[in-house]
Write a structure and sequence with these properties.
alpha/beta; TIM Barrel; 22 helices; binds 4-O-methyl-alpha-D-glucopyranuronic acid
Length: 679
């Protein structure tokens, strides 16, 4: 028995494609259309669309539709590519009904788009939409919507909180593709069109993935994804010409190195004709890169871009480049400045098939950070935004933390790069500056746990990443609600409770962890649980500078590190001054005395105490809300979530007490409300 067969009866494994329960939700007005699916033969992605529709119909109406390519005039669903109706070249689909109401047409700009349309129809079925409300037109502004695995060949996943890799075990690539197929279905259902298969930290074995030793197996995985319109990419080791090529250098300006990469690209594409290209972490956290040879990121990225260009490949070059050997004693240095300082001078110099992949914030996926000023800075370079779906600093998929609201904030952020309304979403889509390529990358949160994401509620983040990458205008609430309906069915108490839990969860997590944008109060390395000074005297550039008077990092131009001045006006001015800086980011930009009065009238210190008491209480409320659903949810899902919420409540209490005690000890000032703070 393969893994998919083993797990396929579990609702937690089926996620939001739990067609069994569509029986309770589907509207009967759609039933006549579902009897026949018309689909031209010979197109593999269209065949996947038909197969998926068929499975959903079976769940909804308990019959299997007839699938045919011959139009015999019967009532049915027609799947068809119609390039002419979608001229802008982006993925787009339309669902429409014929005037005589005998046909539902799902048409798309290309095969992939028809598949996305089919899934949208399936979602409509699952959400109980009726035939007269089925029509819609949807297109994405983002050409690249990529899921990135941080999976290692060993089977471990860097920052993975849902078990081991579904791709690798003990240095070997799996030969059971059943689960990979189901992953491809999940990803395609939310519009993902690329996947990178290995960790950006590329170790010895994965360095060889680009060689004939591993390419047949990578190609086998790629062909599964390709049936769902997803192109495979690989993270590469910049020093591969030395490590596997036997050259003495990886200098990007050396002809031998350029030739090696060109030949390597030719070889890869001979195995995988729709290969996507490379993801590169270079000169970052000890990874090799062009700096070793006195070259810069343009030299490195363009060399790879030239190698993959003849095959239509792209290079996603990460901007997570900073000095990780800093001296905590030196308060003039600031890690937050690094991406901008490193990449702004290179604007306009990258090839057109290079995309700079930029983390949403300037530090590293904290629960609250400003948006990186590189968005709005760069004007002549393809850019995409990187979000961390896996919950490294946001609760390890133990704590509930629905991340879509945070991602929305980043995408909606106004950079003022072309005046008011210059949103990040329009920069990464390419619209604002007319860049040909862009989009969003998500670091995957799945592993081999039965629920994929360990915590079944963390599936909402996987679903949400795709839905937002396809359409950044969707709201956090509509994404949460539709996920809840598709996952749990239409019991309105369940849907309302789960939606509300998801929407509150990011604030709850922030309340009991790191206040007002300061970040980094976590235990080093593991990045879970409180340790206020855990990173304070380290080399990582992650300081809060708390003393007996105040806390926060002065990043102003006037007296601090100057980071605030990396933004365009009026943002730079807004962040520069304590009075105009958004309060949720106060400690990111300013060193603030504990006695400083916030807009609410509370002192900063009292805010820290209050938010931590509040956060711990709110965690308990989340748990109570979940308990109220006992008996209304699949028991395994219920238990998996309950188990984690119990831990979350304990952890929130630990956070509350550690953080409050820390500041009480620093200041000697008690809580105004007389609550228990341990001395
Ligand atoms: C893949 C953070 C994480 C690392 C990760 C790195 C990155 O520093 O802690 O595990 O490495 O980000 O994004 O490259």
């Amino acid at each position: 028995m393969n893994i998919a067969e083993m797990y396929s009866s579990l609702p937690q494994y089926r996620c939001w494609l739990n067609y069994e329960q569509f029986h309770d939700t589907a509207d009967t007005s759609l039933e006549p259309y579902c009897r026949t699916i018309f689909v031209p033969s010979g197109f593999k992605v269209l065949q996947s669309a038909a197969a998926e529709l068929s499975a959903a119909v079976k769940g909804a109406f308990r019959f299997s539709p007839r699938i045919t390519e011959r139009d015999d005039g019967a009532c049915g669903i027609v799947l068809a590519v119609d390039e002419d109706s979608f001229p802008d070249g982006c993925d787009a689909f339309r669902i429409s009904r014929s005037v005589d109401e005998t046909r539902i047409y799902i048409t798309g700009a290309n095969e992939n788009s028809v598949l996305y349309g089919a899934f949208e129809f399936i979602f409509a079925l699952g959400c109980g939409k009726s035939a007269d409300k089925i029509e819609m037109l949807s297109h994405t502004p983002n050409r690249i919507r990529i899921m990135q695995q941080w999976d290692n060949a060993s089977g471990d996943i860097e920052r993975g909180y849902a078990g081991n890799s579904i791709f690798y075990k003990d240095g070997k690539i799996t030969s059971d593709f059943s689960r990979i197929r189901d992953y491809a279905r999940l990803l395609a259902s939310v519009g993902i069109n690329y996947i990178s298969l290995n960790n950006v930290n590329v170790h010895e074995t994965e360095t060889k993935f680009i060689t004939p030793e591993y390419l047949p197996q990578i190609a086998a995985i790629a062909s599964v994804f390709s049936e769902y319109g997803i192109r495979v990419m690989l993270s590469i080791n910049f020093a591969a010409p030395i490590a596997v090529g036997g050259l003495s250098t990886a200098d990007p300006l050396e002809e031998s190195v350029q030739n090696w990469w060109r030949e390597t690209a030719d070889t890869i594409w001979s195995y995988i004709p729709d290969f996507g290209g490379f993801v590169v972490k270079a000169d970052s956290e000890g990874r090799p890169g062009p700096y070793t040879y006195g070259r810069n990121h343009v030299d490195g990225a363009n060399m790879l871009a030239d190698a993959v260009a003849p095959h239509g490949g792209i290079v996603l070059w990460r901007c997570f480049v900073y000095n990780c050997r800093m001296d905590w004693r030196d308060r003039t240095r600031d890690r937050a400045r690094a991406a901008y300082d490193n990449f702004m001078p290179l604007d306009g110099k990258f090839r057109s098939n290079v995309v700079l992949q930029i983390k949403n914030g300037p530090m590293d996926f904290q629960i609250r950070e400003p948006v990186t000023p590189l968005f709005g800075g760069l004007e002549k370079t393809n850019q995409m935004i990187e979000f961390q779906v896996t919950q490294e600093y946001t609760g390890h998929q133990i704590d509930l933390c629905y991340l879509v609201p945070m991602w929305k904030e980043a995408l909606d952020f106004d950079t003022f790069a072309r005046g008011k309304g210059s949103r990040v979403s329009d920069i990464v889509s390419g619209k604002l500056f007319g860049s040909p390529l862009g989009g969003a990358a998500g670091v995957s949160n799945i592993g081999d746990s039965p629920a994929w994401t360990g915590n079944p509620l963390a599936q909402a983040n996987l679903f949400g990443f795709g839905r937002l990458a396809w359409d950044p205008a969707r709201t956090s609430e509509e994404i949460a609600r539709s996920w809840a309906v598709l996952t749990f069915g239409r019991d309105s108490k369940v849907v309302e409770t789960v939606t509300s839990m998801l929407l509150r969860s990011r604030d709850v997590y922030e309340h009991y962890t790191c206040p007002l944008g300061i970040g980094w109060f976590v235990n080093p390395q593991v990045h879970y649980g409180p340790s206020v000074d855990g990173y304070e005297y380290s080399c990582w550039g992650t300081y809060h500078y708390a003393d007996l008077h105040g806390i926060g990092v002065d990043r102003t131009a006037a007296t601090g590190t100057g980071y605030a001045a990396q933004y365009r006006q009026p943002n730079a001015e807004m962040y520069e001054h304590l009075e105009t800086c958004p309060e949720e980011l106060l400690l990111f930009f300013h060193h603030v005395p504990y006695s400083y009065r916030l807009k609410s009238g509370q002192t900063l210190l009292q805010y820290i105490y209050d938010s931590h008491f509040r956060g711990a209480d709110e965690a308990e409320e989340l748990k109570k809300d979940w308990e109220s659903l006992r008996g209304r949810i699949d028991p395994q899902i219920f238990d998996e979530v309950e188990k984690r919420l119990t831990l979350q409540v304990q952890d929130a209490i630990e956070w509350r007490d550690v953080v409050n005690t820390y500041f009480y000890r620093k200041t000697g000032i008690p809580d105004e409300k007389g609550r228990k703070i341990y001395p």
